Amino acid sequence: MQSATENASATIDETELALMDRYWRAANYLSVGQIYLMGNPLLKQPLQFEDVKPRLLGHWGTTPGLNFIYVHLNRVIRARDVDVIYICGPGHGGPGMVANTWLEGTYSEIYPNVSEDAEGMRKLFRQFSFPGGIPSHAAPETPGSIHEGGELGYALVHAYGAAFDNPDLVVACVVGDGEAETGPLAASWHSNKFLNPVHDGAVLPILHLNGYKIANPTILGRMSDEEVRSLFVGYGYEPLFVEGSDPATMHRAMAATMDQAFDRIRSIQAEARASQAAPARPCWPMIILRSPKGWTGPKEVDGKMVENFWRAHQVPIPTVRGNEGHLKLLESWMRSYDPEDLFDETGRLVPELRALAPAGTKRMSASPHANGGVLKRDLRLPDYHDHAIDVTTPGGATAEATRAMGNFLRDVISLNAEQRNFRLMGPDETASNRLDGVFDVTDRVWMERIEPYDVHLSTEGRVMEVLSEHLCQGWLEGYLLTGRHGFFSCYEAFIHIVDSMFNQHAKWLKVTRDLPWRRPIASLNYLLTSHVWRQDHNGFSHQDPGFVDLVANKKADVVRLYFPPDANTLLWVTDHCLKTYNRINVIVAGKQPAPQWLTMDEAETHCEEGVGIWDWAGNEPDDAEPDVVMACAGDVPTLETLAAVDLLRKALPDLKIRVVNVVDLMALQPEDRHPHGLSDRDFESIFTPDKPVIFAYHGYPYLIHRLTYRRANHVNIHVHGFQEEGTTTTPFDMAVLNEIDRFHLAIAVIDRVPGLGAVAAKAKQRFRDKLLEHRRYVREHGEDMPEIADWTWPYGRGAATA
Amino acid sequence: MQSATENASATIDETELALMDRYWRAANYLSVGQIYLMGNPLLKQPLQFEDVKPRLLGHWGTTPGLNFIYVHLNRVIRARDVDVIYICGPGHGGPGMVANTWLEGTYSEIYPNVSEDAEGMRKLFRQFSFPGGIPSHAAPETPGSIHEGGELGYALVHAYGAAFDNPDLVVACVVGDGEAETGPLAASWHSNKFLNPVHDGAVLPILHLNGYKIANPTILGRMSDEEVRSLFVGYGYEPLFVEGSDPATMHRAMAATMDQAFDRIRSIQAEARASQAAPARPCWPMIILRSPKGWTGPKEVDGKMVENFWRAHQVPIPTVRGNEGHLKLLESWMRSYDPEDLFDETGRLVPELRALAPAGTKRMSASPHANGGVLKRDLRLPDYHDHAIDVTTPGGATAEATRAMGNFLRDVISLNAEQRNFRLMGPDETASNRLDGVFDVTDRVWMERIEPYDVHLSTEGRVMEVLSEHLCQGWLEGYLLTGRHGFFSCYEAFIHIVDSMFNQHAKWLKVTRDLPWRRPIASLNYLLTSHVWRQDHNGFSHQDPGFVDLVANKKADVVRLYFPPDANTLLWVTDHCLKTYNRINVIVAGKQPAPQWLTMDEAETHCEEGVGIWDWAGNEPDDAEPDVVMACAGDVPTLETLAAVDLLRKALPDLKIRVVNVVDLMALQPEDRHPHGLSDRDFESIFTPDKPVIFAYHGYPYLIHRLTYRRANHVNIHVHGFQEEGTTTTPFDMAVLNEIDRFHLAIAVIDRVPGLGAVAAKAKQRFRDKLLEHRRYVREHGEDMPEIADWTWPYGRGAATA
């Protein structure tokens, strides 16, 4: 199994293992200290009640195993001079990760007040799970982390995201047996089918079976080695087992196994990189570590089994203040690590142990890969004007908006081919979403067998497709967090699958904004297409525009929502989003052939404003207020609004209509709520202080109310949007069912504008009749009436004077 | 491998197989017909353009495989007289499922206008993916389905949910290789660790590897048999392979394999049921079917490979109207099934084929298990008064609300132990969420090894814990859809993991409400606890109250949101939810010791109203309007509101305060929007027409605005809620960071009530000072100031006159 080119594993030095055991004890000591102490960090005096925190919070169970892995990775890094980052899946491994970063000096470099001495150690202990301090899991605050340990499921997919296009990096990823029960993690193992040994790095999964969750055994922990082996061989890995509880034996086994794993990784890479042929999928190694939960902690507390059981999960000795016996037990537990043997008088790690940590940026806590903004290079962006749709007159051109975007992304891929820092993710829908222009210059990446008749499939593709929104999202997060760029295109309804991942990424970004040492990373960009109004054929299960509601709950400086009404606006927004950082940009746009409204010049102006009056579409005179504002956000609502304007102008030529289109939804919020928000004055100059506003909106209408409820004219804003009335029907019928179609909008105007008289009443009756005619026609013919489907904007650019 | 007690597999009758092949052809014919035709269903005339639908929608690729499985299951059902239901995972298998239900007569029984003759066949074809018709996937409209095929990932978890406590049922579950890539599906295979062969039924997974998704090969489809076998052996199954494309060979192989699988199932069950010992986890069989995508369809279209490739995924011949060549190709494809050999002159299936379908409720399409409301028995509910907390005076008792609920659920479990129709799901958090009263009478179910030191773990438990919200949700959905009852308790923040599953279940319920033949099923009940205000210790990653925002987007007749402020109200709400049907009830309640406000009598009245004035808490005189309304929803907001009232009454004794508590959030909506909505008159009688309302709400404040924006007094409603300001701190500090604490609420009252003068200004300054003092104290001591933590309501029941 050993690589001929490396022989680090030939001998394992027992002296070094003994030092490593002491280093491990130091990390364990610091971990217990963080959970329990607020004073007396070195136990220079007998432990007193007041040394102990009043609220005991934190998680011990997983920590000694994490520390064990850490010291063994350190050995390999030094022996082989490799770049490794450590992804800590187990949710509450915070004390261990923080302890190690402090031991190798990074913590004090970043947070100088937590210095490398007794006082620093005291602060390190005190701040853990303490008000004003740090969370109990690996978090943005933790040096070396790109992975928040709170919600479980995403460690391995983040690891793969980090490894793509990072040929010299090894991502060590610890997966707890609790987390291994989650769906996203169970699917993540298959990421090896997308990792190319030539130009990607390696992921070394370390499945840590300590047997228990909060209050239960784990599924994988209770499976036999045979079944576990079979499972991971089936997933395509070579599992290497390390099992036991005797520290000395375990150190020897782990060191040998780590060497074996790194030898395998290097030989796989060397072979693939030396060969001229496209690489085959390798069988990558993984480590399966069975060690006791709460290893080296108290065996029993109050007569109940703790070590190697779920009672070790959180705080093994639950009450210490006020309980002399527990205080003694805690002290003897901490002294069992022999702190005098580990730290000098000043509280500093003794030199022979300090020497075990790698130096500089080889320290996992100081790796620039784990602070991706440091490595981030701006994308080289093509000129989006090159992709502009020629719109000589509003509605005078037809285009598929996402196809134009796909061509733009094709050029993004070409321009950055050498940098290898852009990927496009999607759940098997890149072509379905009309982004297939990208396949002119790249393929879908695929490490399984490729058949001669396969299409745009290769080991080299920059497009990643897998039928799992979780994997798409997680890979992209890992890729961005390590300093690269990307886009995730998804069916609008099914983006809810990753609601919770979105939440966690938004939280990560919010926290990093207060950590100046974390450099900004590229924004996470979503294209939501195949949207609710054009899922008439797939039906109700595919119709849900609610993701943006979730997004709007997040901090204003993190999120943006864009509804470009046509291809040129979509191009501008795409270009813009790719230039931003530390944000989550959501773009909602259709893929179907649709009328185009704005020239590229107009699109630029409109998008920069975020919201604007479309003079050419309304007919208000220069010298008077309009009678009604017809507002719209989203491509189908815009189309229906303009068709309603046409109906109204023909029926009621004296009615003065203003058309407002909203691209950037956050412009509707007050300016003190969102940086893109309009001032009240600007809002009123667009939406009027007191005229009825008939607002056709892409999603659930409540969002518009929620964004505008503080505006003076809010009482007159009437929103038409998705009312959860979905079915299998035609595109226009979807609009009718939810009352955002041209007829309902025109009727709403007649109902809301006072004093329109008998002509209007008659027009309203005609519109109602049209709706009935439509329903009959659609049910008979299975498609929309030609007069609907073929409607075009008849007024050209000079609507106001037409 | 064969069971001695059954010998159905001894011989496979070639004549029968030949008939089955014809039955399969009939199903395939009907499937193609649904995708393409609106007339000429039996091809009695040469096919004309006008026979073909104008929009071709639907999915062929998966369908012939689904039909193949269907006919083979029919054989087994007849041969063995077993109860089987068919869960169709592949998203777009609609045409096949519908075809089979029509062939066995169920479709026409339920929808008599789609009769068993040529005219019925024409309607069957026409309605598919047609306006006013049916969706392209198995849906609520499809007889025999409990599983919507739109969003992928949940087929297998639904199958297990259906099998629990259904000892005589076999749930055949087809998993497509596309769906198999999703996270939830990848985790679902481990459900076998929770299935007890004695009192549960069996799940027969049929992994259908047809190799392709929309535009890509599949991961599992391209894996070798060796790796696939290893994977599923690792998951704990015995995989039985059926592979090929020659129909006759495949029929023989499939029939033999089906027999083998059913033999294994019966022998596992017989052995376990005969034994007195607790059963060990069996190695259940599964079938791995490799067959061509688009099997029996066109091999090539326009020179491009279609059969056995992803081009067969949707409509293999994409344009037929107007393309003579394509029309001919379609006709010859359809005639290749030889319709004259399958259907008589009237369009009815010929008798020798009709005889192949099972009869009556043995037909999978007519199984009562797939229309669970038919089998549903009401729960036997204990008297919740038995669990009431004795509240002699408001705030005079302290209790953990969810603990009281746990004791109530314990009694629910006991009373229904014999019916075996209630389960409690949770991601390893039942005890953490203080529901551990249930462990007095039951255990966690667990089919892996059980150690002597394990706690409340047995093969017989009614509590299901797994670290996967997806599995908890999916099992419960499957359990409810087959006529049983349950509760899902979850950390509030992590329920977002199943946002999309919630969406799909809500859609299912909405559609079934318009299908009178579907009998109502029990509601899906959530308890969201360990909520945002008490995740101070776990930090920001665990803090998210936004699930209810998603829920509020759904149709009013499907969803309910409850925020009981204490234990007695929680008991009433729990009892109420368990009596409802066809709904999704979300209850948000805390688990920490907290003051109790209402006696059980008061709780009943309050919960029945949904919202009410707490006379004892305010101090408004009988004969005048209050100066301010202090409203609250949620346990922590209620506590902080009452503490703010206390502060204000002491500082400003003349200020007239009304306290309003909201239990049922939907009461805030207008009555035309939600059945629980208050009339405007009632709303004003509670919230006043014009006084300031300071509303402390549990979640994101926007939801309250969205629910109340149509109310006349909306402009005066000022909501304090979660502002996305989370961190690791103390409970009270969480409230302070988000400004829903007593001091901020009291300050808000002073700011909003006009004319309070200098005394109020001074009080405001004192409250500000208190906030600073709090922050200093918390950062020094790591816990809340005693005066905050120990505050109790000082006025008793006679606040108004105190």
TrEMBL record, chains A, B:
InterPro entries, per the entry: Phosphoketolase, THDP-binding, Transketo_C/PFOR_II, Xul5P/Fru6P_PKetolase, Xul5P/Fru6P_PKetolase_C, Xul5P/Fru6P_PKetolase_CS, Xul5P/Fru6P_PKetolase_N, Xul5P/Fru6P_PKetolase_ThDP_BS
Name of protein: Probable phosphoketolase
TM helices/strands, residue ranges: none
Molecular functions per Gene Ontology: aldehyde-lyase activity
Keyword flag Magnesium: no
Keyword Lyase applies: yes
Pfam families, sorted: XFP (PF03894), XFP_C (PF09363), XFP_N (PF09364)
Cofactor(s) the record lists: thiamine diphosphate
EC code(s) of this entry: 4.1.2.-
GO aspect biological process, one term: carbohydrate metabolic process
Record's keyword terms, sorted: Lyase, Thiamine pyrophosphate
Matches recorded under CDD domains: TPP_PK
Chain ranges of the Xylulose 5-phosphate/Fructose 6-phosphate phosphoketolase N-terminal domain: 12-374
Assigned protein family: Belongs to the XFP family.
Domain Xylulose 5-phosphate/Fructose 6-phosphate phosphoketolase C-terminal residue range list: 591-793
